[in-house]
Recover the amino acids of this structure.
């Protein structure tokens, strides 16, 4: 990362003393702290950390992804799309970034783009269970139960003992049966 001294005061207002101590020895901990703040629901702090991270290392996929997630959680969906689209240009095979971009498009109600990016994410890493579930649920929300069923079967081919997927498959089958009548 570039020289951090310009951002030290800003970081002191965001990070705890303990976190600053860790950061002094490990500059990349900035990314870890950003994701910790996302997990805690402190999206503004996460956004601030990832914003500093962008200034220091604007091409890091974890920083770009974290900034995109933070913006989404702060309700800045269009800005989130711009950041995550840039990240997918730089890292077209990063399954997590692709899935997060799909999620933002879903939030915007753009099912077509969301389906596209969830599919690309699964091409990059077919074992991401959360992405499979998101794709299945998106198909359900879009009213396409047959494709939801197929997506669920595809996931069960990868993880045949996944109880949640089995239950979801059975629910979809029940809903398909009900929708015929």
């Amino acid at each position: 990362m570039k020289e951090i001294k310009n951002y030290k005061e800003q970081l002191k207002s965001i990070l705890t003393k303990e976190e600053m101590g860790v950061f002094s020895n490990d500059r990349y901990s900035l990314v870890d702290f950003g994701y910790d703040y996302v997990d805690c629901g402190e999206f503004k702090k996460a956004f601030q950390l990832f914003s500093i991270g962008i200034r220091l290392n604007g091409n890091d996929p974890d920083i770009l992804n974290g900034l995109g997630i933070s913006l989404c959680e702060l309700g800045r969906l269009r800005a989130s799309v711009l950041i995550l689209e840039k990240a997918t240009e730089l890292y077209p095979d990063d399954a997590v970034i692709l899935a997060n971009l799909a999620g933002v498009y879903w939030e915007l109600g753009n099912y077509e783009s969301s389906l596209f990016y969830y599919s690309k994410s699964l091409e990059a890493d077919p074992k991401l269970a959360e992405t499979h579930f998101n794709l299945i649920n998106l198909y359900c929300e879009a009213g396409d139960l047959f494709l939801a069923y197929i997506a669920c079967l595809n996931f069960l081919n990868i993880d045949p003992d996944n109880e949640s997927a089995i239950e979801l498959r059975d629910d979809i089958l029940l809903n398909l049966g009900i929708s015929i009548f």
